[in-house]
Protein 1
Amino acid sequence: MTEYCSKCGEKLKEDAVFCANCGEKVAGKHNSFSNKHILLIIAIFAILAIFLATTLFLNQAQTVKVDNVEFEIPADYVKEPLRTDVSFDGNVKSSAMGWSNDKSYIEIGVTRTPGEGINSEKVAASLGGTPTKMYGYTGYYLEYKNEGYAFVFGIKDEVCMIYVSDYDVFDDINVIGAV
């Protein structure tokens, strides 16, 4: 639809805010232009807010401690009280804890010889597996046919074993280290 200037009657260009002939402000044009920009800015902020909220909530982690070693695992894993075991035979202390979510399972075990010290790398090697490096530690990768995967490695005088039900869960775990 063709519009004309209310002051001089000149034909207006399609998106004119002012009349090219007399300079009169075109009624209603300035508001729709501003409203479009405001709506665009609101939409951009809404998308950004959704992205940030999703990123923050999905990437949360919890710190867990098994014996003297701390690990970081995803926040949606819940501790399995029946999978907590601590044994001490006077020389060797073993601790194991398990966590699960709707899809996967994590179990972490730590074995150490208090006071005496052990060669944790030698003990890890005695369990077999494929030599590999994960989490910044040299250790041994084990695959249990249709049952899960493990990485065994030594930290000081502790032998650590991280067992996961799905291989991709290894990416969700971080070894903080001995405390």
Protein 2
Amino acid sequence: MTASPSAGGPPEHLRFAMYLSALEAVPEDEEARLIVEVLRDTDARMASSAVGRHLDRRAAVLLTGDRFAAWVRLMTDLTAEQLFLRRRLEEWTRLRAVVLDHAWTAEELTAGSEWLQRAVVATPTAAPREALRLLAERGRTRRVRAAARTRLSHVATHDRGSGTSGAGPSVFE
């Protein structure tokens, strides 16, 4: 997989765009092969960034489904040498635990990255009120704390007014 030099722009930018496009369109049964190929690029930082974007896109789609855990295991194996990608997959796993109200601890959430905390607040499915309250009080940044307070208020308003779970707009869309 190589980019055409006649397309203009720095070659790594062209390869990055090409990788993103290929990863977005890859059939599920070819995903692992393509990720391995991308990660072999001579520009490791660019390749990791392209794969990271793909992992974020795919994890958001699979987050609450049955295939998520197996997919994360495979992706973790494929990205074992990539610290950032491994950490991001761990964060997606924590996000899933919180969103589905599986076992999670306050420490896991408060010690998590700002990305994880913002993702909990912004997830399209209703985050448990306990998680939102915790982030409203002890989130890493003012931005996280304010967003969690807003989401809690939104959940309370929707619960009183319409009986819904309070899932609001999402940064995942």
Protein 3
Amino acid sequence: MAGKDNRLFLAFPAEALAPELTRLQRRLALPGRCVPPEQLHLTLHFLGQCNPKQQASLLHQLDKLPLPGFALVLDQLGCFSRAGVVWLGPSAPPPALMALAEAVELKCRALGLDKPHKAYRPHVTLFRHSNTDELPTIRPFHYQPTALCLYRSTLTEQGPVYHCLQRWPLAEVKGSEARGENSHRKR
């Protein structure tokens, strides 16, 4: 099940957006390495090294966790300078996504998995080994994930390679949430 190198993370695969994001990568033409289309995903939670017992417990917890559907608008480019990562994310993350991130973090803490070193910021990594302070304004991308995956990250000379170990479908999105509108607006 899990060997010595069992770096895991939870994310929403972005295969439906891959063609558009690949065009964006080409248009930006930033230095560094583009994340390949089949590796694009919206990160939910990085778990780090997991032993087999932690992984089994996590799978059990996730099987019981309600997984709401949501839509979001990816409208903001950013850079994690220390990590050398250029990313695309929402300026207004949907409440369902943020609540899910909080629930997963609590489950992970209960299993003894490390807490992330920073507050959750949903994003799709576009470039690695890239640092820039100047990023253009972009047209928004509408994204509605259909599944949550548990990935294993294997480090190679060409960069990390991700393998989906388990996939859970998300609930169907209804109404204004399907358009990426936040339901917490004042009426």
